[in-house]
Amino acid sequence: MAQFDESKNKLVVKIVYYGPALSGKTTNLMQLHDAINPTQRGDLLSLETKGDRTLFFDLLPLVVRSKTNFLLKIKLFTVPGQVAHDATRKAVLSRADGVVFVADSQQSQSMSNFESFDNLEKNALRVGLNVDTLPLVIQYNKRDLEGIEPESEVLQRWGPTGLPVTFAAALKGLGVVETFRQILVLTYRSLDKHHGLEQEHGMAEDDFLCLINASA
Length: 216
Ligand SMILES: Nc1nc2c(ncn2[C@@H]2O[C@H](COP(=O)(O)OP(=O)(O)O)[C@@H](O)[C@H]2O)c(=O)[nH]1
Ligand SMILES: [Mg+2]
Hints:
Structural class: alpha/beta
CATH topology: Rossmann fold
Strand content: 15-25%
Number of domains: 1
Number of helices: 7
Order of helices and strands: EEHEEEHEHEHEHHH
Helix content: 25-40%
Oligomer: single chain
Number of strands: 8
CATH superfamily: P-loop containing nucleotide triphosphate hydrolases
Distance between the termini: 29 Å
Largest sheet: 8 strands, mixed
CATH class: Alpha Beta
Bound molecules: guanosine-5'-diphosphate, magnesium ion
């Protein structure tokens, strides 16, 4: 859940990129770092686990200001995908305001996607998040590779959940901003509903989307 500072002039929001190991979560953040206006983002911070190819987590901090000078900080996190790092995943997921689930489109990875999504649901429950109302976007990444699940199958599989699905080739920068736009819109609407962003703080959806419109 987003947190206000004491003066009520600032809100800190957390969006988490979740998914199996090597699906492209870090690559999404690297591309966003390059796409977002430098005045609205900090450096991409990556903490690596010792002797492990996996990143402990990554953090990309962003800022959005409304015309009334209300300040919103958005922290983008990634989780480590490896099964062994469940405690870290749980900690990173805690108090998330929105989640992007990055799946690996390769057919050989469909079981890892399934297990990771199952793990997301379990950890959400553990940290008190309701997956039925949580802003959530599914991204099928690595569309540039051979042996991937066809779009029609992916859409058929996820259709019943009603969750938005995007397709990306993050390494080439494709679909990354579009996925982020979708989670921004869903997160804005959820925050607006719970915290009256527009009514009480003068922050409109467009202020939020400025983050990426400036780069388009
Ligand atoms: N071919 C291809 N490779 C990708 C894509 N996105 C990420 N990768 C590669 O997949 C590997 C894992 O990516 P990374 O972002 O570190 O995955 P993470 O473990 O989910 O953070 C790296 O070698 C990336 O360059 C993509 O869209 N296409
Ligand atoms: Mg990573």
